[in-house]
Design goal:
With about 190 residues, the protein is of the alpha/beta class. It has two domains: about 1-105, 3-Layer(aba) Sandwich (Rossmann fold); about 115-140 and about 160-194, no CATH class. The chain is built from six helices and seven strands; from the N terminus they run βαβαβαβαβαββα. It has a seven-stranded mixed sheet with strand order 3-2-1-4-5-6-7, sandwiched between helices. Helix 1 (about 20-30) packs parallel to helix 6 and helix 5 packs across helix 6 (about 170-190). The chain is globular and about 50 Å long.
Length: about 190
């Protein structure tokens, strides 16, 4: 892979809804000289998302777009994203499902991280379902976003063993740590294959 230094870095937008721990991890990754990305925009549907503070503290433009009307909200997001010449969108705990039209505008350029070993356990309440079904392993997946929920091409996965003492809270904590390691690696892999 060609090293992209300085102004040759790829413009990236991160979409969040909550605490933004993956955003924090991606900001740290983007600051490395060897990183191919530059985060220039953070989009949230939640004005109170704690993750917005990471954007503010790192002087990254951030926009909050309310989702009262999905069509209007996505039009607004598209405007901001196009203005920033965004080449890659990373969903990091963005709790809204993007429309077919939005995805079509960015086909092959939207990544998502999901806290399970896809194709198993798509959607919400992942850890709860994993524990309930007495799975031996879980993990996280970075995948391309397509029109079906959590169904796009898998870029990278990381697996961990579930211990007998694990519950959904302890499992969630472990997997979140894995996510922070996996997302930057998946971006590198994704960009090196383009």
């Amino acid at each position: 892979m060609v090293k992209l230094i300085g102004k040759n870095k790829l413009n990236v937008a991160i979409f969040i809804s909550g605490r933004g721990s993956n955003l924090k991890s991606l900001i740290n990754f983007s600051k490395k000289n060897s990183s191919p990305i530059k985060i220039i925009l953070v989009v949230s549907n939640n004005l109170k998302a704690p993750g917005l503070n990471y954007a503010i503290n790192n002087n990254i433009k951030n926009v909050v777009i309310k989702y009262k009307n999905k069509l209007k909200a996505e039009k607004e997001i598209l405007k901001v994203v196009n203005r920033g010449n965004i080449k890659l969108i990373c969903l990091a705990g963005f709790m809204k499902i993007l429309s077919k039209n939005f995805i079509k505008n960015f086909r092959g350029k939207i990544l998502n991280i999901h806290p399970s070993l896809l194709p198993k356990y798509k959607g919400l309440n992942t850890h709860e379902r994993v524990i309930k079904n007495k799975e031996k392993f879980s993990g996280c997946t970075v995948h391309l976003v397509n029109n079906k929920l959590d169904s796009g091409k898998i870029i990278l996965q990381k697996k961990i063993k579930i211990l007998k003492k694990d519950n959904e809270i302890s499992l969630a904590k472990k997997i979140l740590k894995l996510e922070h390691q996996l997302y930057p690696r998946a971006i590198l892999k994704f960009l090196s294959n383009r």
